[in-house]
Amino acid sequence: MTDNDGQKDFSEAAAENAGSKPGEPRVSKPYIMPDDPEETPSEALVKEAAEAKDRMLRTLAEMENLRKRTQREVADARAYGIAGFARDVLEIADNLQRALDAVPAEARAAADPGLTALIEGVELTERSLHRALEKNGVKKLDAAGEKFDPNIHQAMFEVPDNSVPPGTVVQVIQTGYMIGERVLRPALVGVSKAEPKPAA
């Protein structure tokens, strides 16, 4: 229907625009974007924030692990950095001990003042060397009379001996040393074993 000016009635134009004929109920069509995401913008933001938080927490954990590992490495470097040098110095300590062991007790008792002074000087040097090693975390292992421990002792031979329990260190061939909580050099030792029983 048109009015006197030849224009369509407003209700008819609205019906045509809505895709329905005049007199029919108007059907509204939903507005759909071509690439409409399945999630609403708020859900996507929440998911993105959760992922960012997870990445941040993982990064913080990695940084904390790196900090602890670096602290351990620095502490180890301080405690064990001189291990190579200390091993070389142990040879000097061994030679001083051999020099003292080479002088029998009888010769010491009957020694002239010059030899006595020499022996005392070697003993003083050995003590000073051990003090310097201890100051830097290197300690002597007192293995004699101890139960054999493969972590700090190295058995060179067995000695039949019933006066001590089997597996006891009865002789020290070379002194062992620790640096901090680690073995710098194991002690070379002789270990007791039970004597065989005589045949009946």
Q: How would you sum up this structure, described in words?
A:
The protein has 200 residues and is an alpha+beta fold. It has a domain at 137-195: Head domain of nucleotide exchange factor GrpE (Nucleotide Exchange Factor Grpe, Chain A, domain 2). Helix content is 48%, strand content 16%. The strands form two sheets. It has a three-stranded antiparallel sheet with strand order 1-4-5. Strands 2-6-3 form a three-stranded mixed sheet, with no helix packed on it. A hairpin with a 2-residue loop joins β4 (177-179) and β5 (182-185). α3 (83-101) runs antiparallel to α5. The protein is elongated, with a radius of gyration of 45 Å. 9% of the residues are buried.
Annotation keywords:
alpha+beta; 200 residues; Nucleotide Exchange Factor Grpe, Chain A, domain 2; 6 strands; single chain; 3-stranded mixed beta sheet; 3-stranded antiparallel beta sheet
What's the rounded overall pLDDT mean? 82
Q: Give the CA-CA distance, first to last residue.
A: 139 Å
Major sheet description: 3 strands, antiparallel
How many helical elements? 5
**Which band does the percent of strand residues land in?**
15-25%
Biggest sheet, spatial arrangement of strands: 1-4-5
Helix content: 40-55%
What is the chain-wise order of helices and strands?
HHHHHEEEEEE
Quick one: how many beta strands?
Answer: 6
